[in-house]
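We modelled the chain as a single entity of 180 amino acids. Its sequence is:
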Amino acid sequence: MIPVTVTRRSFIVLAAALSLAVGCGRESAAPSETEQKKDEPPPVPFQQRPPLPETLPKKPDKEPDHVWVQHILISFAGRLPKETRTKEEARELAIEVLARARGGENFDQLVMRYTQDQRPGKYWLANKGVQPDKSKQEFVRDKINPALSIGFSLSPGNIDLVNFDPDTNNAGYDIVKRLQ
């Protein structure tokens, strides 16, 4: 037998390796992402999550004078420079992002991940015939992306999809949330 000098450090490394190999101490370790906690139901994929009622489009009683909206622009090849996805891929992604937003995912995080417009994609809009509030850098409804006008037909918290239209919404698909 060859004499081996065992240092404290090498002993600790060897013990750790052996415990991993045989699963020692598994009960005290945090469960992995693939393990299911006994008391929690499995996470529901976004496709199967029902939309939260407060996110569904609901027309306000009266069209407001001012709205604050946030949007996610999803474009496709031929609409924005360097974009490679097809129109159908953009449409499918827009529907997926809409479902995720309506399912309760954080809209700000969805904007940061998916929008092809400037972030955070929040805009104040003044309705037709209403003086814009310069302190909010508010836009006149008719002088900005027409897709954002959907905010006037949504109640606060509602989220909707504006489909691509070469005449009125020519950059792609917009998921719009009315904030106020």
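As a brief sanity check on the tokenised model: The two ends are 79 Å apart (CA to CA). The CA atoms of residues 36 and 42 lie 7 Å apart.
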